[in-house]
Specification:
Layout lengths: L3 E8 L8 E8 L2 E6 L10 E4 L4 E4 L1 E3 L7 H4 L11 E6 L22 H13 L3 H7 L7 H8 L6 E4 L1 E2 H9 L10 H17 L3 E5 L19 H11 L6 E5 L9 H14 L2 E5 L10 H5 L1 H9 L2 E6 L23 H4 L3 H8 L2 H11 L17 E2 L15 H8 L3 H11 L6 E2 L7 H10 L5 E3 L16 H11 L6 H8 L1 H6 L16 E4 L5 E2 L3 E3 L8 E3 L2 E2 L1 E6 L2 E5 L2 E2 L21
Parallel strand pairs: 1-4, 1-5, 6-7, 7-8, 9-10, 10-11, 11-12, 12-13, 13-16
Antiparallel strand pairs: 1-2, 2-3, 5-17, 14-15, 17-22, 18-21, 19-20, 22-23, 23-24
Helix pairs in contact: 5-6, 6-7, 7-8, 8-10, 14-15, 17-18
């Protein structure tokens, strides 16, 4: 007897094996049978006709920031609409717990919740008004944060402890600007053990120079010593089903020797895999991939495993000279763009400042951000002044040629006319045949996995959540760099194995019935668009799925014909209970 039979679809089971026509029987949220069409006996409560569709395991997005959004959006849109059934959050050193009780020590009289909200708004691009009104903020411990989500989410979700919140919880305002003494490190270890006992999946941290808090100061984890990091990693290794995630400055371009040793040492100390985000592949920089994968080679020598996450699609990102984005991270640009708008405009009008900014954008120090320096290729998005009428949708280089200017001057003039509000869309510089061939080769490396969508973050800048459907469309009807079966395995069985999700990522008896049904003839994503559907009316970029017929989590439809159903069958993933240790030695 089955609760549900998914009948007549092409089952691509997540293992990489060729797909087969089969029926899938589901009972009590689990797959209980997979057999040839018509072979499953018994009268189900329901039959779902999958004729002409692919039936695949639900996709697993291992790098998201849904920590806040799940409180107001249990469906984790748009990820679930594009077939994602499991999300992992708390990445990049940022979580919403533990949340220190207010004692008046926060800078400027702000509450601790205020501090975390402003930090998340700055580093992860979450609208502050949405954070203030859409999240309850009524927990203290990490366990209380997890319990608050239990039973009310549509997707399966698990969370790392962010080093920044952990450090702030123990040290208060002194977490920023100070090294931790032995007592503080021990207190962090105690709190970390408590979070891991409650089900946290591990620890994330950041040392990236691009991560500043709401006051513009380096976030708390950037003040940690190597000894502090290794001590916390050893604590993680004492708990089952855990892993590590870390961001260092070299993630933006190429690691230095110390960063390679640090990442390898952290993984070895825990005896758990460590992943980092994101491996940028560009044939114009051939040394980058082998250098970044040197961390993985070194980790295996020392008894660890370092996993590089990389995206299978190019995620469009808009830019602005007004609000914080990647342009503000170009070395030297922050000194111009941090000023109030009138002063910023005055500086941008200075020819010497413009010349210096162009040189900085193209300097070796800019690292991967050098990709943003091809100003002639920017497409002009929304404009706001009569002076810019008719420019939306045009390419900066074409406008510059008409005006007899260099492209950067034209770009700045357009932005200044709009009071810097102009939306700018850079054209990818790594969308060439050689770069895509290099990506396909890189995907074959044993320590490279797909990931890095940042779904739930940078909501006004990018829409990374649709990458599964865009990747499938490319594999089926585009570049066809890998087979359908391989593409599905890269987003299901492989991340499940690497992150210790033993009963997910594969369609097989006994596994959770996390499933996505899609039409291989049409599966894709619409272009990104802006919607005003966040708490307090805040805006975000999103995109709709094409050809996604149904998404099931634990046997229950959470998406039907591309739209959320409102069901909340998701599992709050807790370490040791829902995850298994992936040991490195």
């Amino acid at each position: 007897m089955f609760d549900l039979i998914i009948a007549g679809g092409r089952v691509v089971d997540g293992s990489g094996r060729p797909g087969v026509l089969a029926d899938v029987g589901v009972r009590d949220g689990r797959v209980v049978a997979v057999d040839h069409p018509g072979a499953l006996s018994g009268v189900p409560a329901r039959t779902l006709d999958a004729t002409g569709l692919v039936v695949a395991p639900g996709f697993i997005d291992v790098h998201t920031h849904y920590d806040a959004q799940l409180w107001w959006d249990p469906a984790a849109s748009a990820s679930s609409q594009h077939g994602v059934t499991t999300v992992l959050g708390g990445n990049c050193g940022f979580s919403l717990a533990p949340l220190r009780a207010d004692d008046g020590s926060a800078a400027g009289g702000a509450t601790e919740a205020d501090y975390l909200r402003r930090m998340m708004a700055k580093v992860e691009g979450m609208p502050l008004a949405a954070l203030e009104t859409g999240v309850s903020w009524d927990w203290e411990s990490f366990g209380e944060f997890l319990t608050g989500l239990e039973g009310r989410i549509a997707v399966n979700a698990g969370f790392l402890v962010g080093h920044c919140a952990l450090r702030r919880y123990v040290m208060g305002a002194s977490a920023v600007g100070s090294a931790a003494d032995d007592d503080a490190v021990e207190a962090m270890v105690v709190q970390l053990h408590g979070a891991l006992d409650a089900g946290a999946l591990g620890l994330s941290t950041t040392l990236s120079t691009s991560h500043a808090d709401g006051d513009g100061r380096p976030v708390a984890s950037r003040w940690a010593t190597t000894d502090e990091l290794l001590t916390l990693c050893r604590a993680v290794g004492q708990h089952e089903g855990t892993f590590l995630e870390a961001i260092v400055p070299g993630c933006l371009d190429q690691f230095d020797d110390e960063e390679i040793e640090l990442l390898a040492g952290m993984s070895a100390a825990a005896g758990r895999p460590l992943n980092w985000n994101v491996l940028t592949v560009d044939a114009a920089v051939p040394a980058r991939v082998p250098r970044q994968l040197e961390a993985s080679r070194r980790a295996r020598e020392t008894g660890g495993r370092v996993i590089a996450l990389t995206m299978p699609t190019l995620v469009p990102m808009n830019m602005s000279l007004l609000t914080f984005c990647a342009l503000h991270l170009i070395p030297g640009w922050g000194e111009v763009l941090r000023h109030p708008v009138p002063e910023r405009i005055s500086r941008l009008r200075d020819p010497e400042v413009r010349a210096r900014m162009q040189a900085q954008a193209r300097s070796p120090e800019a690292g991967v951000l050098r990709r943003l320096s091809s100003f002639e290729g920017y497409v002009i998005g929304d404009t706001y002044s009569t002076a810019n009428a008719g420019l939306s949708g045009r390419v900066v280089g074409d406008v510059a040629a008409e005006r007899g200017q260099d492209p950067f001057t034209t770009l700045v003039d357009i932005a200044v006319a709009d009071g810097l509000r102009t939306v700018l869309w850079p054209t990818p510089t790594d969308d060439d045949h050689a770069s895509w061939q290099l990506r396909a080769r890189t995907w074959e490396h044993e320590d490279v996995l797909l990931g890095g969508s940042d779904a739930g973050a940078h909501l006004d800048r990018m829409a990374g959540a649709p990458y599964p459907t865009r990747f499938l469309a490319d594999c089926l009807r585009g570049r066809r760099l890998v087979s359908l079966e391989r593409a599905v395995a890269m987003m299901t069985g492989e991340p499940a194995a690497a992150f210790g999700l033993p009963d997910r990522g594969i369609i097989a008896p006994g596994h959770a019935a996390d499933l996505v049904l899609f039409d291989p003839r049409t599966v894709d994503s619409t272009p990104a668009r802006t919607v005003d559907d966040l708490p307090a009316g805040a805006s975000r970029l999103t995109a709709d799925p094409i050809g996604v017929a149904a998404v099931l989590v634990n046997g229950v439809e959470i998406v039907r014909a591309g739209r959320p159903t409102g069901a909340t069958p998701g599992t709050l993933l807790r370490s040791g209970r829902d995850t298994a240790s992936v040991r490195t030695r």
